[in-house]
User: What shape does this take?
Amino acid sequence: MLHVNENYRKIQASYLFTEIAHRVASHQSANPAAKIIRLGIGDVTEPLAPAVVEAMHRAVDDEAGRANFHGYGPEQGYAFLREKVAEIDFRARGIDIAADEIFISDGAKCDCGNIQELFGDDVKIAVGDPVYPVYVDTNVMAGRTLASVDGRYPGLTYLECSAANGFVPTPEQAAGCDVVYLCYPNNPTGAVATKAQLQQWVDWANANKALILFDAAYEAFVRTPGIPRSIYECDGARTCAIEFRSYSKTAGFTGIRCGYTVVPKNLVAYAADGTAVELRPMWTRRQTTKFNGASYITQRGAEAIYSPEGQAQCRATIDFYLENGRLMKTALEARGYSVYGGGDSPYLWVDVKGDSWDFFDRLLKEANVVTTPGAGFGRAGEGYIRISSFNSRENVLEAIERLRKAL
Ligand code: MLT
Assistant: This one.
């Protein structure tokens, strides 16, 4: 008899954003004329930077002739992109990361989800609460937890993040854990962590032979001087951290799919007999077995993000989204809501002082505006909704008008 992976029976029937999409589709089918504005899933709306488009067109031309045709590429990514990443994202900012520590992928979500394959079944995992669901669900699927009880999975350690701690947990909350997922600027709360706060985590991880999985998908939104954009800005992070980066929000690649993961040399985990085992060769082995690389055309597009024009164009688009966030934050605060995030992040985290799914449904029905209920990110997300700044200015201004009326 064919048996299923029982761990899949422990997780919620559908992924958060799939559940939201169902509710929105059902509202749309009941109200076909409604013009729905989507401020839910963090999906970009503005077109690719012209520098990226031109580079991708040139790459298509390469693929159109024998001379420059590319078939399978290196699973870790083309050297032309890995070298740009190491140079511009790290070395130009004084961070010691080499091209052969960069693994190009089809996005941070896959890497964040797949990385746990490198660790033993018995490792103790800590996640923030609220949290990006991928970190939790992939560990549930891998069998590291029991079935959920009251919205939490026994076997995981939840690090409560609230307005009281600025949505940044402290290492004491992760006592006894081997792996901690940190995401700053944070999804969903939009909070940022200071260098001193991240340094505490790095010191804790090094002292406890633990590992930080640092999701920096939103680093390009940081505008406040001194706020770290990489965990490797902290002393000692090379020996205790893996970092995930994404071009999705940085350069509008949600539909193109490209990102990368940094696994430093000499970063180790331990075999049962105590032998230190390097993680970088293990990740290489995993990727070469299960992944065939992001496409040549995609990687040429990603390379163009690092040109002077590409950098200026991408920054302008991010500034545009940040301004969307500022406009919405101001409007909601004027209505008396406490709003966190924005400023250094595309997400606003709004205290709705009530049930978050009810508030989500109310905004959908009364304003035709889609948000994300905080409860979908964990128990500590209850009482909040997340609003994404990714949309056109026209839609954002329209959404503000509708929210003013509905609230
Ligand atoms: C989000 O809205 O949280 C993200 O866009 C989802 C994702 O990146 O998978």
In short: The chain is about 35% helix and 15% strand. The mean pLDDT is 97.
